[in-house]
Amino acid sequence: MEEWRRSFWRRVLGELRRVEEEFGRVEEELFRLMREAEERMGCITPLYNLYESGDEVILTADLPGASKEEIDLTAGEDYFRIEAPCRSPIRGGESRRYILHVRLPVQIDPESVRARYKEGVLEVVARKKVRGYRITVE
């Protein structure tokens, strides 16, 4: 019986190593595709942080060189989309743009979204969508 257990755990650990290696290959491919997309767009994908705080979802994104008038922010119930110039002109007079599309972990009320831009950082705050209503029983 003891040999069976050892054999079982060796197989399990072997399978976990195989999954880990496959995940590493997928991760490398994802980063390769991201670098290719960044080269085509001309700007790196902006660094961002997304977190929940109480009944709000908060996104901060680094957009150095943009001005608040040029930032295009769109919010849906489950996403934020940000587009802004990144101030690195390429040949032919074209300007490059930051493009960031973030899926949210919860649904939000798009009408509640507030945003401010200061010193190259955009902060977006939205209230989480209420999933139900509290009913008073009489």
Furnish the topology, listing elements before pairings.
Layout: H1 2-41, E1 48-53, E2 56-62, E3 72-75, E4 79-85, E5 97-103, E6 114-118, E7 121-127
Antiparallel strand pairs: 1-2, 2-7, 3-4, 4-5, 6-7
What does this entry look like structurally?
With 138 residues, this protein is an alpha+beta fold. It contains 1 helix and 7 strands. The chain folds into 2 domains: 1-41; 43-127, Immunoglobulin-like, CATH 2.60.40. The protein has one helix spanning 2-41; strands at residues 48-53, 56-62, 72-75, 79-85, 97-103, 114-118, 121-127. It has a 4-stranded antiparallel beta sheet with strand order 1-2-7-6, with no helix packed on it. A hairpin with a 2-residue loop joins strand 1 and strand 2 (56-62). The mean pLDDT is 85.
What attributes does this structure have?
138 residues, alpha+beta, Immunoglobulin-like, 7 strands
Radius of gyration: 22 Å
Number of helices in the DSSP assignment? 1
Residues in helices, as a percent range: 25-40%
Listing every helix as H and every strand as E from the N terminus to the C terminus, the arrangement reads HEEEEEEE
> What is the makeup of the main sheet?
4 strands, antiparallel
What's the gist of this structure?
With 138 residues, the protein is α+β, with helices and mostly antiparallel strands.
